[in-house]
Design goal:
The complex is a heterodimer of chains A (313) and B (254). By secondary structure, chain A is an alpha/beta fold. Helix content of chain A is 36%, strand content 29%. Chain A contains 11 helices and 14 strands. Chain B has 11 helices and no strands. Classes of the chains: A alpha/beta (313), B mainly alpha (254).
């Protein structure tokens, strides 16, 4: 069953001149950690704002936790948690006060709100800053507080808009580890443009470009479905790599696989892996080029991303 | 005990007024004018007389009365103190929209109506509290320096003045909801203030305007009967401003 679903979702601004979403069809399976990938301005944040009830779509339908978004009832909002791209909180509150306030808005009584706040302060590593004003927090601390407030009610569905954007490597590792632990219990929709984060925690990935979904698949399957495998040749010198690439094009092999060169490395994106590998080895031998290594690998998420939205990012 | 989102928001608004020192500033300003108004009424003629004597001019002024003290209080509170209150109100909604804290609250199970109602109620409560302190000071000093007005009449007169203040607080709140910046909200509020004041000469319409409450509050505080027209006018402005704010805020997208 889908925890989040949208059908032909459209959002336009300035009387239709700017199209933020252009018929978005999104399916997020229940209990999954869904990576919502896309270049800047692709429509990720707009889609999340619609799904959290902050913004009304121009047309189309959306369902969250089985309920239609139209009207966005408080019952529906009680089932979701949200961390915005640039989280802002009341600077005069302390971290602990903010979490108690957030818990109470979800209907917790004062005692359980305080208990929950203390749990989350512990979990987010903010115990020592709990009684400090948020105005004095660093960007990373605000981000961790943001994640904490988003899960204060143990929501069924969690929307995280660029959750690791302003975190240092350790903070990023903690947040990603935390998101991974929610798998199966909470449906997480996480927008990001950091491909490595998606590969680390997401089981399903959706790629959005210009307001439309261009690909959705399980993380491991995405490469197989949307980008050809890669033959990578490492030469001893950059000149050798350049000579190979030029000979590859002259030999008319571009139809077998497109070649890209970066320093001493040539990558061949092959539709027919065996043919590309054999042709490459024949060419190396014929030209007597100093080859250091040759390896084949499945396309990475980056390969898929570049292939699908490379022209717009 | 579980509290409804409105009461959670209301509690947060009250704490914000205290922690940001807005309540303290408001209280001090109003108390200052409560204390200063009877003093000014009492001593201004004496100061003028002494200035005139020094320059060889004889200034003849009538002996000040409790009516002058009440008039001075109404004038000060309805101008300078109200100005401060409008300054503190003009950012109430638009500042949260600008900072992004409104979106943080609105994705939680709190309705947009309760978000606005908690804010307006807090502004009213703080304004009323500060005004009540001010009125108490003004009454005490008037009683000491002049003759104590009738308590019932003074309370009734002050209630009219308070209604005048709350009307402008509510219109400022409306502009704070629809405007894109605090400055725009403030400017629009003052323009409406000036507009309503300039409509005072429009015959029957002027009877319904909030400005009519100012003269009425002095008259009533000193025992004159109360007319219903300005009350109805203010009630209509308050209701329209609040519902206008609700309609605009429902459409607002962060």
């Amino acid at each position: 069953m889908d925890a989040i679903r949208t059908s032909a979702l459209v959002k336009s601004y300035e009387r239709g001149k700017v199209l933020a979403l252009n018929g978005l069809d999104l399916h997020v399976p229940e209990g999954s950690v869904f990576g919502f990938l896309g270049p800047n301005g692709a429509g990720k944040t707009t889609a999340i704002k619609i799904l959290t009830g902050l913004v009304e779509p121009t047309s189309g339908d959306a369902w969250v936790a089985g309920e239609p978004m139209a009207g966005s009832s408080s019952r529906l909002r009680s089932q979701i948690g949200y961390l915005s791209q640039d989280p802002r909180f009341y600077s005069w509150m302390t971290g602990r006060e903010l979490l108690v306030f957030a818990a109470e808005l979800y209907g917790a009584d004062r005692a359980s709100a305080r208990r929950r706040a203390d749990e989350l302060l512990e979990l987010s590593g903010l115990v020592r800053a709990a009684t400090r004003r948020i105005g004095g927090y660093s960007g990373g601390m605000v981000q961790r507080l943001g994640v904490a407030q988003a899960i204060v009610s143990e929501p069924r569905i969690l929307f995280l808009d660029e959750p690791c954007a302003s975190l240092d490597p350790l903070g990023r590792r903690d947040v990603l580890g935390f998101i991974a632990r929610l798998r199966g219990r909470t449906t997480v929709l996480m927008s990001t443009h950091i491909l490595e984060d998606v590969e680390r925690v997401c089981d399903t990935v959706g790629i959005i470009d210009r307001g439309r979904m261009v690909a959705t698949a399980e993380t491991g399957e995405l490469g197989r479905r949307f980008a050809p495998p890669v033959v990578e040749l490492g030469f001893e010198t950059a000149d050798a790599a350049a000579a190979f690439a030029s000979a590859w094009a002259e030999a008319g092999n571009a139809t077998v696989a497109a070649a890209t060169t970066e320093g001493e490395v040539v990558q061949l994106r092959a539709l027919d892996l065996a043919q590309a590998r054999a042709s490459a080895l024949r060419l190396v031998a014929a030209k007597g080029l100093p080859l250091a290594r040759l390896e084949t690998r499945a396309a990475s998420l980056e390969d898929v991303f570049v292939r699908l939205v490379g022209g717009t990012s | 005990m579980r509290r409804r989102p409105f009461f959670v928001l209301f509690g947060k608004e009250l704490r914000e007024q205290v922690k940001s020192y807005r309540l303290l500033i408001l209280g001090l300003v109003f108390v200052f004018f409560g204390l200063a108004s009877p003093l000014l009424a009492k001593f201004t003629p004496e100061i003028l007389k002494s200035v005139g004597t020094q320059q060889g001019v004889t200034i003849v002024l009538p002996e000040p009365t409790a009516a002058d003290a009440v008039a001075q209080f109404v004038k000060n509170v309805s101008q300078i103190a109200l100005l401060v209150l409008v300054f503190l109100t003009m950012g109430s909604v638009v500042a949260e929209k600008e900072r992004g804290t409104a979106a943080f609250v609105l994705v939680k199970p709190a309705s947009r109506e309760s978000f606005l109602a908690a804010k307006l109620l807090t502004l009213w409560l703080c304004g009323t509290g500060a005004f009540a302190l001010s009125a108490l000071c003004a009454y005490g000093y008037t009683a000491i320096l002049f003759q104590a007005p009738s308590v019932a009449s003074f309370v009734l007169g002050c209630s009219l003045l308070l209604l005048h203040i709350l009307t402008f607080v509510t219109t400022t709140f409306f502009f704070s909801t629809i405007a894109r910046s605090q400055v725009v909200a403030g400017v629009l509020s003052f323009l409406v203030w000036i507009l309503l004041a300039s409509l005072g000469s429009l015959g029957i319409v002027s009877e319904f305007l909030p400005g009519r409450l100012l003269s009425a509050s002095i008259e009533v505080a000193l025992g004159a009967p109360l007319s219903w027209e300005p009350l109805a006018g203010c009630a209509a402005i308050i209701v329209l401003s609040f519902f206008g704010a609700v309609v605009a805020f429902r459409r607002w997208e962060p």
